[in-house]
Amino acid sequence: MILDCAGRPLDLSQPQVMGILNVTPDSFSDGGSYQRLERALARAREMVAEGATLIDIGGESTRPGADAVSVTEELERVIPVVEAVARELPVVVSVDTSKPEVMAAAAAAGAGLINDVYALRQPGAMAAAAASGLTVCLMHMQGEPRSMQSAPSYTDVIAEVATFLQDRRAAALAAGIAAEKILLDPGFGFGKQLEHNLRLLAHLAELSHLGAPLLVGVSRKSMFGALLGRSVHERLYGSLAAAVLAASQGAAVLRVHDVAATVDALKVVTAVRGA
């Protein structure tokens, strides 16, 4: 399958790597590292050189307890970076936002994908995404980012995530977003405890039949802190293991911090498939 992201094609016949570029002061892993345009662009260049085919630019942290960001502030953080990356690099530019104003401005600035943790449920977001003509990623989340980890609960996490994603895909189709412009994300770590994340990863193949390619983000997540007792910058090996498990079950896009290592790991997955 070839995913069209504003004229920049993405071949999903093999797993692709989305590099994370947070232009925020408070993201859980790299907050404050790339707030200046020059540093953000340098990091984007580095990730593309390492093999990233998408760069996901975010201007508001979704970690538990993070402060809300105004529309104006998010636009000021994100749009110059979107413009610079889209202008300079041959890569799909993704904007990690839930705000319709940011979606519209990012589309005008050269973005090719809208990556929304709220799955276009915020007021005006669905209409803005449909009007942009961009590819969208719809993510499952139980609760709200700032309180989602307080007490997440499921009867059957696989079934509940699948139903949510099916419903959001149907809503996107009804709004005029083409089926071939939809990605789905089970939302590892978003309103989920360790046991929920592990079960999702163990049964990810069951979600790969929902009618859209899967995007998976497990990089450096707190699940590895709970499982391995590792700090956020010591979670590479756990993240790679999870990325390989996800790709082997059909994940089309892996959203990661550590691009070079993940690209190598996924080359092994692709080679084994080809054998």
In short:
41% of the residues lie in helices and 17% in strands.
Question: Could you walk me through the main structural features you see in this protein, from its secondary elements to its overall organization?
Answer:
With 275 residues, this protein is an alpha/beta fold. The chain is 41% helix and 17% strand. The chain contains 9 helices and 10 strands. The chain has an 8-stranded parallel sheet with strand order 8-7-6-5-4-3-10-9. A two-stranded antiparallel sheet has the order 1-2. Strand 7, helix 5 and strand 8 form a beta-alpha-beta unit. Helix 2 (71-88) runs parallel beside helix 3 and helix 8 (236-248) packs parallel to helix 9. The protein is globular, with a radius of gyration of 17 Å. The model has no long low-confidence stretch (mean pLDDT 93).
pLDDT average, as an integer? 93
Order of helices and strands: EEEHEHEHEHEHEHEHHEH
Q: Assign a percent range to the helix content.
A: 40-55%
* Order of neighbouring strands in the sheet with most strands: 8-7-6-5-4-3-10-9
Q: For the report, how would you describe the main beta sheet?
A: 8 strands, parallel
Structural class: alpha/beta
Low-pLDDT parts are none
Strand content: 15-25%
Radius of gyration: 17 Å
Shape: globular
Q: End-to-end span in angstroms?
A: 20 Å
Name the descriptors:
275 residues; 8-stranded parallel β-sheet; two-stranded antiparallel ribbon
